[in-house]
Design brief:
Blueprint: E1 2-8, H1 15-29, E2 40-41, H2 59-67, E3 74-76, H3 88-97, E4 105-107, E5 116-120, E6 128-132, H4 133-136, E7 142-146, E8 148-150, E9 154-156, H5 158-163, H6 169-175, E10 182-183, H7 193-197, E11 203-204, E12 210-211, H8 221-225, E13 231-232, H9 241-255, E14 261-266, E15 288-292, H10 295-310, H11 320-327, E16 335-339
Parallel strand pairs: 1-16, 2-3, 2-7, 3-4, 7-14
Antiparallel strand pairs: 1-15, 5-6, 8-9, 10-13, 11-12, 14-15
Helix pairs in contact: 1-2, 9-11
Length: about 350
C-alpha cells in the first residue's frame, strides 16, 4: 500500500515552506534517490487566470533541490487550442509574465508540438502514446499538480497532469474521441499555411476547405499555425468513458519507468481548470498539500480528504479514471495517509 503524505494549510504565507518539508519527507521516508537533473512539471496558468499555483509556492521545492545540488527547470507542453500557450515562444513569454523566472523554462514538445517520442504501451485503446520529447527523455520528475475541477475530466490532479500535461499536442488530440480538427470555411482565408505545415497532406484548401479524416494523424499542428483561428477541435461527443481511459493510458506512458515524485496543491479549488483564461472564484476552502510516489493514490487521497471535510462526495464525475488507471497498472487506489503536523 502506497504512502501519501499530507500537510494541512494554515496560512498561504508558509506554503513554500510546507511544500519543501513535504518533499524532504517523501524523499527521506521513501528512500528516494534523486537524479542529478530533476525537472518540475508545472502548469503556468492561462492568460487572465489568477488561481493557478503561484510561482512563489515552488520556491521551497527549488531551494530543496539546490541544497542537494540537483539541477532543475520548469517543464511544460503546448496546449491544443488557441491562446497564449499553443506555441513555445508565446508559452515561455506567458510563463515569464506569470513570474516563473527562478529556474529555466522548457517547453517539452517543440514550437508547435512537433517534438515527441512514441512510447509503446499496448493497452486497450492505444498501442503507443505521443509523449513530449523532453519529458520522455527524463528519468525522474517532480510532478506538481493543482487539484481542482475540470469541465471535461471532472477533476484535475496528478493523473491529468501526466496524461494531458505530458502529451505533445497530437497526443492531447488523440486522447479525445471524434476530435479530428474541423475547418470553418467562413473564417478560412485560404492562405494555405496549414496545408504547407501538414506532414501528411491531409488538408484540401479548395472551394470548401476540409480535412481528410483518413489521412489526418492528429498532430494538431494545423490548429496552431492558422492565423485566423479557422481550424478548431471538434469537441462534439469528445468526452466519454473512452476519453478517461485514453487519458489514463497517456498518464501510464508518461509515468512508466520514471522515479517520479508527486506533489498536489489542494488550494484555490475552482470548479474549472487553470487552462481557462479568465478569473475564477474558488468554491471550496483550501485544504493542503499532498505528496506521494503514486499518481493514483494521491488523486484518491485528495478526493477522500475533501469529501470527508465537506461531508459529501466532491468531484464525483470523472472518478472512473481512477478505476481504470489502477486496472492498467498506473497505481493503486488504496493508500496509507500520513499527516505531517
Amino acid at each position: 500500500m502506497t504512502n501519501v503524505y499530507f500537510k494541512q494549510i494554515t496560512t498561504k504565507d508558509k506554503i513554500h515552506a510546507d511544500a519543501k518539508e513535504l518533499l524532504r519527507t517523501v524523499v527521506e521516508k521513501e528512500g528516494i534517490l534523486l537524479e542529478r537533473k530533476v525537472p518540475i512539471k508545472v502548469h503556468f496558468g492561462e492568460e487572465k487566470n489568477v488561481t493557478y499555483i503561484s510561482p512563489s509556492y515552488y520556491e521551497g521545492i527549488i531551494d530543496y533541490l539546490k541544497e542537494n545540488e540537483i539541477e532543475s527547470c520548469f517543464i511544460e507542453t503546448n496546449v491544443l487550442y488557441r491562446g497564449e500557450r499553443n506555441t513555445r515562444r508565446k508559452h515561455i513569454l506567458l510563463a515569464y509574465r506569470h513570474g516563473f523566472t527562478k529556474i529555466p523554462v522548457i517547453i517539452a514538445d517543440g514550437e508547435i508540438g512537433e517534438e515527441y517520442t512514441n512510447i509503446e504501451i499496448n493497452k486497450k485503446n492505444l498501442s503507443s502514446c505521443k509523449i513530449a520529447q523532453k519529458i520522455a527523455e527524463q528519468k525522474q520528475m517532480i510532478v506538481v499538480s493543482h487539484f481542482k475541477g475540470h469541465i471535461g475530466a471532472g477533476f484535475g490532479g496528478a493523473i491529468k497532469q501526466l496524461g494531458m500535461g505530458c502529451a505533445a499536442r497530437g497526443g492531447k488530440l488523440e486522447q479525445h474521441t471524434n476530435t479530428i480538427p474541423i475547418i470553418n470555411p467562413i473564417e478560412c482565408n485560404k492562405c494555405n499555411r496549414c496545408k504547407k505545415q501538414c506532414p501528411v497532406d491531409a488538408l484540401n484548401i479548395g472551394l470548401l476547405p476540409r480535412i481528410n479524416k483518413k489521412k489526418c494523424i492528429g498532430c494538431a499542428s494545423c490548429i496552431s499555425i492558422c492565423p485566423e483561428g479557422a481550424i478548431k477541435i471538434n469537441w462534439l461527443g469528445s468526452i466519454s468513458k473512452n476519453f478517461y481511459e485514453r487519458m489514463a493510458e497517456y498518464a501510464y506512458a508518461a509515468h512508466n519507468g520514471k522515479k517520479n515524485i508527486y506533489l498536489t496543491f489542494a488550494i484555490n479549488i475552482t470548479r474549472n481548470c487553470d487552462c481557462e483564461g479568465h478569473k475564477m472564484k474558488p468554491f471550496l476552502k483550501d485544504l493542503g498539500i499532498f505528496a506521494s510516489t503514486d499518481p493514483v493514490a494521491i488523486d484518491m487521497a485528495c478526493l477522500d480528504k475533501l469529501s470527508e471535510r465537506e461531508k459529501r462526495k466532491i468531484f464525483n464525475r470523472g472518478r472512473y479514471i481512477l478505476d481504470y488507471a489502477q486496472e492498467i497498472g498506473l497505481g493503486e487506489k488504496e493508500y496509507n495517509l500520513i499527516e505531517i503536523l
